[in-house]
Amino acid sequence: MTPQILHMGRPLADAQAAMILVHGRGADAASILSLVPELESPASAPFAFLAPEAPNGVWYPNRFNVPTALNEPYLTAALDTIDQVVAEVGAAGIPPERLIVLGFSQGASLTLEYAARHAQHFGAIIGLSGGLIGGDGEPRHDSGTFAGTPIFLGCSDVDPHIPKARVEQSAEMLRAQGADVTMRLYRGMGHTINEDELTFVRAAMVTVLEEPHPPTPSP
């Protein structure tokens, strides 16, 4: 099934870099794209922004930290959706080094889980209020190495949906796969996105544009 994907910014065929934005539970693609104006800067102009939409606004039915089997087959379908969007970006000639994947809440957990299972040198992975998916102590089946990919984990230290310990554990696991992890736990913050997190994303966009880009083929 082809996912619904909303686009903003530069058309993908003409873009120099791309960002995939993954919305949270009960939201939609348009809502996560509302972040795009907050990310505007000279560095944002060459970016294509793509946001897939979950069926009925939900990527998987249960909490992210229950045993994985309790979120199947929906979790696998959601991961496949992200993979399709990543493939679309690649087909347009944009390499992984020039791709940022950003998710919030349920979308953050999905983003981090996808990245861990498909580790490679991405431009950046941004998980805002989320953590790796699965029950405590559940065996993982991650593959690949991030080879220094910047990964940002930002969350409240008292988030009602995201246990602080899971954020810390996720940071450790992603570092073990070779990621350059920045974790920031914000004291007393709600389940939201703050300006410090957006500042990190803007800086990551500048860095991504410094990565080599394949030349455009001659007509």
What would you say this structure looks like, in words?
- The chain is α/β, with parallel strands linked by helices and 219 residues long.
- The chain is 29% helix and 19% strand.
- Helix 4 (164-176) links the parallel strand 6 and strand 7 (180-186).
- The longest helix has 18 residues, at 74-91.
- The protein is globular and about 45 Å long.
- Bin the helical content: 25-40%
Low-confidence stretches: none
Helical stretch count?
5
End-to-end Cα distance: 33 Å
Radius of gyration: 16 Å
Structural category is: alpha/beta
Number of strand segments:
7
Overall body shape:
globular
Q: How do the SSEs run, as a string of H and E?
A: EEHEHEHEEHEH
What proportion strand? Answer: 15-25%
Major beta-sheet overview? 7 strands, mixed
Please state the average pLDDT score: 95
As laid out across the biggest beta sheet, the strand order is 1-3-2-4-5-6-7
What keywords describe this structure?
alpha/beta
Outline of this structure?
Helices cover 29% and strands 19% of the residues. It has helices at 29-33, 74-91, 106-117, 164-176, 195-209; strands spanning 5-9, 17-22, 47-52, 99-104, 124-128, 150-156, 180-186. The longest helix is centred in the middle third of the chain and has 18 residues, at 74-91.
Write the layout of secondary structure elements.
Blueprint: E1 5-9, E2 17-22, H1 29-33, E3 47-52, H2 74-91, E4 99-104, H3 106-117, E5 124-128, E6 150-156, H4 164-176, E7 180-186, H5 195-209
Parallel strand pairs: 2-3, 2-4, 4-5, 5-6, 6-7
Antiparallel strand pairs: 1-3
Helix pairs in contact: 2-3
